[in-house]
Every structure is written in structure tokens, then in C-alpha cells.
Amino acid sequence: MITLYLKQAWALLKQNPLFSSLYILGTGLAIAMTMIMAVVYYVKLAPVYPEVNRANTLYLTSARFQTGEEGHKNSYQWAVSYKALQDWFYPQKNAVAVSAALLNDMTENSYIQPADLSGDFRVGLKQTDPNFFRIYSFYFLEGQAFTESDLESGIHTAVITEDLARRLFGTVENVTGRSFTMNYVSYRVCGVVRSGSYLTPKSYAQVYVPYSVSPDYRKPQYGIDYLGAFNVTFLVKDSEQAEALWNDIQEIVRKENLMHPNDWTVNFWQQPISHTLSVFQSYAAEELDVWATVRYFLLILLILLLVPALNLSGMIASRMENRLSEMGVRKSFGAGRNKLLSQVMWENLLLTLLGGILGLLLAWLALYVCREWVFTVFDRWPDSVPEGVDVRVSGEMLFAPTVFAAALLLCVILNLLSALIPAWSSLRKPIIYSLNEKR
């Protein structure tokens, strides 16, 4: 019976090409827009290479220190110093791994001087420690990460991506042990990793070096021993350990503020925060209104899906009026209302599935072609892509079956409802009325 309905639906589709085309296009656009939105946040939130541990990763990226007496306080907001790493964070027991990254002028403005003298070019740099490669699951094509002894000695060694290896050496094979010049200093390659994507900003770089290569990495800022330029990332086993870690750090804040209230006090706000919260929170001191965020995205989703569904409902109502005489004839030969309604629903399901395929293709095309801006379209403070950086969109980002299935299911439900209401209304009319319709 279902096969027969689908054959009849296909025949009607060919008989009414304009209606069918508009229906498929409308459904396709709705699914495409929904898919784009879903994939953008899938890339931000889901475990994608190399940030496969996002569910168990916590971040501490900002700190506020205040000095002076009450009423005459000076505030300094930055991050934490090397001393804070050693005294507060590296010794943490409620973490599988603790990693720090140094943010300074070298991070923001590093240039490579290629051996062929083709001209300096800017490179994405992370100054970090060996635990960085425990938290982020990079795939090493050859070699390995730098070691703790490399970090302690300040040796100029580096992990580079395969893309940079090809640009510097023309290959990714036998690159370990070779050298390149960055900021007019020679670095030895200790490992080559599969390139990540600029869309995974917590881990993205082209060169990874020990933070000890920076001459001033131990230097605190503004005369406060614990104020500096290090961000801290934690890997935990589960939510229980995450809560225990958060309590430990809040206890550090409480104790430190009690010990020297007249010298300085520190505030980490609600940090360390989860990866999910970091996506929606613009700055550490912001109090995120979860329900306001949910309402915002529900409103966008309703606009993307409900408006096309209402338009399609009007089209279907008009079409059902044109088919009243056909329905009247079929009723007179004994076809029941449920059977006729079932046929109409199968017809619209076929059109919806065809629209879903079109929408999927349009979404993939838009996400790939417009990848340099579409992934920041929902950000409050979008960053521009640095010159020369290719925004890599991997297969696991685009081909997310659960995302497509969820978007298609929503569209199917709305489209079938948009078909059900006008179809049910038309089929309730008496046979005589339907037979006398001359449309």
C-alpha cells in the first residue's frame, strides 16, 4: 500500500511541477538554514579533532587582582603568572592533566623566515607545555611532543602541523630533526601532527613550542606575584572530579584573600568553566542567563522552520481546493477519509524527503564555500580569520548524521502538520460539495 501511495505521489509530483518545485525548494531552504545553524554549534560543542575531550575539559582564562585599601583599590585584570601555575594549579590532584598556555606579543606576532627566502610569513603559535598534548588528542604523523626537560631547559624545539611542514620542507616525511627559523631564531622540529582547524580555537596553531622559549615567561605583571599571562586548561575524568576541582580552586581564592587582604585579593569568578559554557560566555565575569540563551535559539529555530511551514500550509490548502472534485469522486467509490488523508500525507512526505536532500546539499555547499564567516555568524564578537589561514572544514564536521537526522525530523513533523490541517479541512466537506467543484 505504501509503495502504491509513493507511486501516486511521484505521478502527482510530475503533473504539478510548479507546486512540487516550490514545495521542495521551500522545504530545502528551511532544512538548509536549520542545518547550517546546527552544524555551526556542532563544530563549537561536539568532540571534533583534536578537541575530542571537550566534555571533560575546563578553562581558567582570566583573573582579577585588586590592591590597596578599601575605597582606594586598583584593579588589574589579566590571567595568572608562572608562580601561580607552580603554587596553585600544577599541583592539583583533582585533574587528569593541567596545561598552561602563555599569551604575549610572541604569540600574536610571530613570523617564519623560509629557507628559500621567499618572504617572511605570519604563523599561528601556541606557547604551552607537554600536557597540552595529553588534553588535545593530536595525531602525530612522526616524532613526538616536546618533553618536560625541554620545557625546563628552554630548548628551542617545536611541534609543527603537516600543512606547515609541506610549506617549509615540501614533505611531511623525515621532517623530525630538521630546523626552521622563526623570529630569526632557529627551532628544531620534534614532531609533526595532523593539522587541526581554525574552527577549534582552543587547540589551533601551526607551531607549538615550550613557553619557556619566551624570555620573560617567569616575570609577573604590575608587581603582583600571581598576575601574569598564562591561561590554564584542565582535563578531568568526570563531572564529579570537575566539581571537586572547582571547589579546590575556590578554596585557594578564599585562603589567599584571607592571608593578605591589605596587599591584594584575587577573583576567578566561576572559573574554571566547562567547554559548553565557554562557547556562550563572552568574558569570565559575565553571568550567563541560560534560559535567555535557550529562548534566543528557540526563537531562531521557530523562525527558520515555522515561517516556511505556514507558507507551505497555504500552498497545500490551495492545492487541496483544486483537488476537491478528485477527492469527491474517490469518496463516491468508497474511499474513506482516513485513506485519502493517508495518501495526502505520503505525498507530502515524499516532497519533504526530496526537500531534505536538497537542503542538505545547500547546507554543505554554504558551509564549505562561506566557511570563513558563516561559523562566526552567531557570535557576539566575531574574530576575522588571519590572512593566509585556510579554515579547514573536516568531514566529521560536515557529515554529522545526528545533526541532519534531527533537522530533517523537525522539518518532517512541521511539514506534515502543515499538510494535515488543510487536508483534514478539505476532506471533511460533503461528497456533493466536492463533486460540484469545477476547479
Overview of this protein structure:
- This protein is an alpha+beta fold.
- The chain has 2 domains: 2-49 and 290-435, no CATH class; 54-280, no CATH class.
- Helices cover 49% and strands 16% of the residues.
- It has 16 helices and 16 strands.
- It has helices spanning 2-15, 17-45, 82-89, 105-108, 132-135, 148-153, 162-169, 239-259, 275-280, 290-322, 324-332, 337-369, 371-374, 395-398, 401-427, 431-435; strands spanning 57-60, 63-67, 74-80, 97-102, 111-113, 121-122, 125-128, 140-143, 157-161, 179-182, 185-193, 207-210, 227-228, 230-235, 264-267, 273-274.
- The strands form 3 sheets. Strands 5, 6, 7, 8, 9, 10, 11 and 12 form an 8-stranded mixed β-sheet that branches. Strands 4-14-1-16 form a 4-stranded antiparallel β-sheet.
- The radius of gyration is 30 Å and the shape is globular.
- Mean pLDDT is 81; it is low at 431-435.
- The chain crosses the membrane at residues 21-43, 296-317, 349-369, 398-421.
- One of its GO terms (molecular function) is transmembrane transporter activity.
- It is a multi-pass membrane protein.
The number of strands is: 16
Spans with pLDDT under 50 lasting ≥5 residues? 431-435
Counted by DSSP, the helix tally is 16
Give the biggest sheet.
Answer: 8 strands, mixed
